[in-house]
Design goal:
The chain is α/β, with parallel strands linked by helices and about 230 residues long. Helix content is about 50%, strand content about 15%. The protein is built from ten helices and four strands, in the order βαβαβαβααααααα. The chain has helices at about 15-25, 60-75, 95-110, 125-130, 135-140, 145-150, 160-170, 170-180, 185-200, 210-225, and strands spanning about 5-10, 35-40, 85-90, 115-120. Helix 1 (about 15-25) packs parallel to helix 9 (about 185-200) and helix 7 (about 160-170) crosses helix 8.
């Protein structure tokens, strides 16, 4: 493919940024003329009630700052040659995925911007994408609890990072919480898993539906013509 492709990726936290960088490094490996940049935030926040009158003060929360980032990127990428798109990746947590998607699309439409934006929602959390490749997980963590991993239902709403901790951490979630009582320490554990398992993921053999949705959208955009 001769046409240049550029992708901006917005993601809600550091561990997600680490994982998506691992995924994108694999994705672009066999492709030509494609570049990407990842922006990691410090939490999810909320979509502003008046998205077209947002503050210019950055909160470092993905949804809170999203209208400002989308408008700014639309302006900065407008004159760039080739295909450009923004991918927004976030966890559904306990929210209804369909309703979250509707709210995001409505906000995007109200902004009146030209650049193409894809919203990719990890169900329930991005750790589901790590649990979606059992071979990569077991290679990264050979002592992981195989039976517990086999019982995991893909993209289920069960407290995904906690389930991952039970699978890979010695002594499970209770042992992790004894030494990682703060959000920062838990974040370090998530980053470690994203780095260790993410490096081994086979992006074409993952069984997480939300992971495969992200890959399909990448494929659709990269293969499209302007």
């Amino acid at each position: 493919m001769d046409e240049f492709t550029y992708i901006e990726i917005l993601i809600e936290d550091k561990s997600g940024g680490i994982l998506v960088e691992q995924i994108m490094n694999k994705y672009v490996m066999d492709k030509e003329n494609i570049m990407y940049k990842i922006h990691s935030f410090k939490g999810i926040g909320k979509i502003p009630l008046k998205a077209n009158k947002m503050s210019q003060v950055k909160s470092k929360r993905l949804l809170t700052d999203l209208p400002m980032y989308l408008k700014g990127m639309d302006t900065s990428l407008n004159n760039m040659p080739g295909k450009k798109a923004i991918f927004v990746i976030l966890d559904s947590d306990g929210e209804d995925c369909a309703e979250m998607k509707r709210s995001l699309v409505q906000m995007y439409q109200k902004l009146g911007i030209a650049i193409q934006v894809f919203f990719c929602i990890a169900i329930e959390e991005m750790e589901a994408w790590l649990l979606g490749d059992s071979e990569a997980l077991l290679t990264a963590y050979p002592t992981a609890k195989r039976q517990l991993l086999q019982r995991y239902v893909q993209d289920s709403i069960i407290g995904t990072w906690e389930y991952l901790a039970d699978v890979v951490y010695k002594g499970g979630l209770p042992a992790l919480k004894r030494i990682a009582s703060s959000y920062y320490e838990i974040g370090m554990f998530k980053c470690e898993c994203a780095r260790n398992i993410g490096a081994l993921l086979d992006i074409r053999k993952n069984v997480s539906p939300s992971f495969n949705y992200f890959i399909r959208k990448l494929d659709s955009f990269y293969g499209s013509s302007t």
